[in-house]
């Protein structure tokens, strides 16, 4: 039985990943802040360790086949780059140093598609495309790219594999995080939508991609975990169809998003936390499309429909009474 150490095990992607690892007969040791945060079933092959990303976990890394590092600071409202760098870069370097010292064979780093250049429907972004604005101005994406570059520059004793998931939808989004986009449209009589587009992926498929990357991925390589490229209007229409609702759909003028971005920039200068910024509002106005060709051909991933991801997310939200 292969042994893996996982961080970020209680989030959307982490929970789905640990559940799949157990289904595939892995022995999992997971670092969590609180054991009570684990939403999955108990298993004799799952060991929960309470601690932080800067804890000394060297004793738990002995005889591990791989480390899967999912934990990250993903919020969009933090004001300083150092707030992202501490979690997304410094903690990653700390964990990697411990993994290397313990002679762990593989270190899988979960990054984001936004460290790679996006494209349009006819020319989608891929693993070789350089990062583009507005994500070059995103502290989150910048910190993830810095961590990627650091890991790829390290020695070869521990193989580094990077996965770059797009926007994830699915069950176990208990905060919720990315699932807020469903709550934006679900049970609403009027739905306002930006004119841009993005790539969506089922969280289960992203978890599957992580496991396949550990098993089949090549050291020093990146793998986009991406499924359907959809406009926001198309995505919200899927929610409407699945839930049997028929709200009024109103596009948000680009000028309004530009104005909100400027307001957000001003609030940030006043040290007021907000998810508004010119970069974030620009992200809502572009076609943020990606290709999954490499992950399909090299990892053999079969992506599920986003309709299935939406249904799974809504069922979870219904159980949690969101």
TrEMBL record:
Give a single Pfam family match.
Epimerase
State the coiled-coil residue ranges. Answer: none
Q: Which residues form the NAD-dependent epimerase/dehydratase domain?
A: 4-224
Q: Name one GO cellular component term.
A: cytoplasm
Return the InterPro entries for the record.
Answer: Epimerase_deHydtase, NAD(P)-bd_dom_sf, NAD(P)-dependent_oxidoreduct
| Gene Ontology terms for molecular function | aldehyde dehydrogenase (NAD+) activity
PANTHER family per UniProt = NAD(P)-BINDING DOMAIN-CONTAINING PROTEIN-RELATED, PROTEIN YEEZ
Name of this chain's protein: Nucleoside-diphosphate-sugar epimerase
